[in-house]
Amino acid sequence: TGNPEGVTPLHVAACKGHTEMVELLVKEGKADRRKVAKGSCAGTPLQSCCCHGHVNGVQALLDLGDDIRIL
Fold first, then answer.
1. CB 20 within 8 A of CB 57
2. pTM of the entire structure?
3. How far apart are alpha carbons 61 and 50 in whole angstroms?
4. Which helix (H) or strand (E) segment is 14 a member of?
5. For residue range 11-51, what is the model confidence (pLDDT) as tens digits?
């Protein structure tokens, strides 16, 4: 799910730096981590964390299996 720009709850959590929510959504299997969004939370959730300087979110996504090569 997501809005017309493809922004999902995981994108919003990543974009806003809500690391615990990022972890919860991923662990519960409620998130497509490879979905690319447009707009203010553009890119994948990992890219969004990087662009907004959310180091803890980046680390959480990498620890949960995201691939650094998708940056």
1. no
2. 0.83
3. 11
4. helix 9-16
5. 999 999 999 999 999 999 878 787 888 877 778 999 989 98
